[in-house]
Amino acid sequence: MPLSRLAEATTPTAHLGLGLAALGRPGYLNLGRDRDLPDDRTPDALRARTHELLDAAYAQGVRYVDTARSYGRAEEFLGQWLAGRPEAHDVVVGSKWGYAYTANWRVAADVHEVKEHSAAMYATQYAESVELLGGRPDLYQVHSVTPESPVLTDAALQERLAEQAAEGVSVGLSVSGPRQAEAVRAALRVAPGGERLFRSVQATCNLLEPSVGAALAEAHEAGLYVIVKEAMANGRLAPGVAPAALREVAEECGATTDAVALAAMLHRPWATTVLSGAVTTEQLFANLHAVTVDLGKEQLARLAELAEEPEAYWQQRADLSWH
């Protein structure tokens, strides 16, 4: 099973993945985006940037790439890159369904994506993903599951996803919001036909919002692959804007704040893969230095004090503007 390569990888950077959320569309929530990307964000420009990042990540040993139907043209860009790189057959591709991209390549759109967890949406988006990627993804996840999501209770939809698993595509979910832990634990109980449906869980976990950690440890213990997203808190932990405590630890380690932020997540024994959301090669190489950062117990304790109340964290994230 391709997913097993994530847990069995021995090269340090193989436990880091590249997320394409900020590369497949002109507008996104990350801070500093106006500085990191050119004003001319045509599809060709972002395709070239995506391929540049994929080339660099692959050369450095990264073997997991995360995308989604709602990430603009990210699946298309990735599929084109894979078609031109036959040697990249060892890349594990994870995509997601459940959101439709509605911004039509505009930064100032009123609505950028619309969520729908229905069997009809799944069927439509799975077919689109396969076509754009040039084949089936290794992992296909339900996007941004919350405790109220139908996928946790809809038996017919669960049976359809189980059929997908039987066809060789691993079924996973990503979770979102202040009740991530509740959604993860509910997902662990989903077992149509007596067999656990979900093989992986992807969650927002970072120094500012670590509240899902205990639930992810339970998922790992249950045999799921755990993928950490938004480890940089949408840019809030980046150099220049990171909290003082993180800057101090980074200085002690001789590293940048982004490397330390990712290293803190890599230190979690339950984390299979931690995603980089880099949009420049400079950011990517800085992120990859996370594997060289050795954090001590005292430093980890100081970093743990950065945690915010989940409701406050998610409200601040909701208030970020697409730019």
Q: Indicate the radius of gyration in whole angstroms.
A: 18 Å
- The gross shape turns out to be globular
Q: Termini distance?
A: 38 Å
The structural class is alpha/beta
SSE ordering = HEHHEHEEEHEHEHEHEHHEHHH
Count of folded domains: 1
Mean pLDDT score: 95
Q: What proportion of the residues form beta strands (DSSP E)?
A: 5-15%
Adjacency order of strands in the biggest sheet: 1-2-3-6-7-8-9-10
Q: What would CATH call the architecture?
A: Alpha-Beta Barrel
Total helical segments: 13
| CATH class bucket | Alpha Beta
CATH superfamily: NADP-dependent oxidoreductase domain
Question: Helicity, in percent?
Answer: 25-40%
**What's the total number of strands?**
10
What is the third-level CATH name, the topology? TIM Barrel
Major sheet summary line: 8 strands, parallel, barrel
